[in-house]
Amino acid sequence: MGVMLQCFYWNCPKEEQREYQWWREIENHVPNLAQTGFTHLWLPPASKSANLFGPSMGYDPYDFYDLGDFNQKGSEATWFGRRKELESLIQKAHTHGLQTLADLVINHCNGADAQETNPIDGKQRWTLFNPKSGKFKRTTDHFHPCRYETYDDMTFSDMPDLSHRHPDVFREILAFCRFLVEDIGFDGFRYDFVKGYGSWIIPAIQEYRYQRKEREIRPYGVAEHWSSEREIVDWLHEVNNWNDNEIDAFDFPLRYKLKRMCDEYGFDMRELLDSACLMRSRPWNAVTFVDNHDFRGGDGGDEIVSGKLMAYAVILTHEGMPCVYWKDYFTYGLARPDRPNGIAALVAAHEQYAGGQTRTLWADRDFYAMERLGHETQPGLILAMNNNGGKWRGARVHASRPGACYEPKAWWSEGDIGKPNVQHADGFGHVEIYAPPRGYVVYAPCRE
């Protein structure tokens, strides 16, 4: 399925001292990211924001079509840069075989030019939008409540909520998605806050036959549905049952499990077998992740702070599409390129070996082992994980390759990063595998 990189974190332009230059910053890394094995780049929202309290991360869109072209809301460029720089980034990504995903924020708007009185409930709201692009102008009739949709049970902060059932809004959203794919060059969408609007609009976006340079584009899609496994699966059924271009969803339940594994003492590794996450119950629609821009304290919770590479070992060996977080990869220095002890080695192992179904080989309180059985050009792998911080752990497991040898491709430990030994299976497939204290080893079949 590939490996995604979330190419931003909260306040990244300011913290990296790259304000209005973020598109260029990402572009500089594209060749190395492609060489490592990444396949998809999730970019931050590209549209001009309200910027009410200074430059914004883009989740409060004002002018959908202003990607850094018009001098409004305090600047011409967005906080990430200008449109031509975004287009240059996307073109370079395509040159290196990478797809780019637009962060699609279509639930709400912000920064209106004037207040209006809503005729349904008589309340004053900031709903008059006259953007300089001249496109997708909005009035109170385009927001909840309106004559097309009087009730909406999910709002985002106090921002006016778009009514997708209004014919003009529905048409404009589809036109905007065409603009992003056909004119700007995006290859798919990350759908922000899908709990806030009817799921029916997503198949309309996903199934549209986009055309770019006489080539049909079927966009990839992944949704942010921050809920339990049951709620996410119900939503996926609702969206995908009548959709011939299925959408995936971020695996929030797994992320909280990984947080406990890394940050809480005494986590039972058998909990990784629990089916209450998409990685287990619906892996073909799972986008697994360790952290993202929303885990910065508050109601969303904090980032993982201890042994985070253990979590990456899980998502980059199991089924689903793993998503790596920019802050972990670059800012925290966990990429560790050209070494076997970081995220880069795990990404390479994922792309070269992690094919086929997952089979559990061993699970007890401290030790967990699984095997990917292989598919087509990916021969499979074995992951051994040890959550005991005191000593190496091992187990004799029954793998799928009688007589094979298994060599370590990626490994890490809090206390011992010495290279593990090559292991040999007997004629029945039994093989001894080991993992260092509070660490992991990814084994792959030896090359013949």
Short description, anyone?
The chain has helices at residues 12-15, 22-36, 83-95, 167-184, 201-206, 229-240, 252-263, 278-281, 308-315, 326-331, 343-353, and strands spanning 4-6, 40-42, 48-49, 61-63, 99-104, 114-117, 124-128, 188-191, 210-212, 215-217, 220-223, 248-250, 286-289, 321-325, 358-363, 367-372, 381-386, 393-398, 405-413, 423-424, 430-435, 439-445.
Structural features, described:
By secondary structure, this protein is an alpha/beta fold. The chain folds into two domains: 4-250, Glycosidases (TIM Barrel, Alpha-Beta Barrel), CATH 3.20.20; 358-445, Sandwich (Immunoglobulin-like), CATH 2.60.40.1180. Helix content is 24%, strand content 22%. The strands form six sheets. It has an eight-stranded parallel beta barrel. A hairpin with an 8-residue loop joins strand 16 and strand 17 (381-386). Helix 2 (22-36) packs parallel to helix 3 and helix 7 runs antiparallel to helix 9 (308-315). The chain is elongated. 49% of the residues are buried.
Q: Termini distance?
A: 26 Å
Protein structure class: alpha/beta
Portion in beta strands? 15-25%
**Which shape, going by the Cα principal axes?**
elongated
CATH top level class name of the largest domain = Alpha Beta
The percentage helix is 10-25%
Note poorly predicted spans: none
| CATH topology annotation of the largest domain | TIM Barrel
CATH superfamily caption of the largest domain: Glycosidases
Order of strands across the widest beta sheet? 1-2-5-8-11-12-13-14
CATH architect. name of the largest domain: Alpha-Beta Barrel
What gyration radius follows from the Cα positions, in whole Å? Answer: 23 Å
How many domains comprise the coordinates?
A: 2
Average pLDDT, to the nearest integer? 96
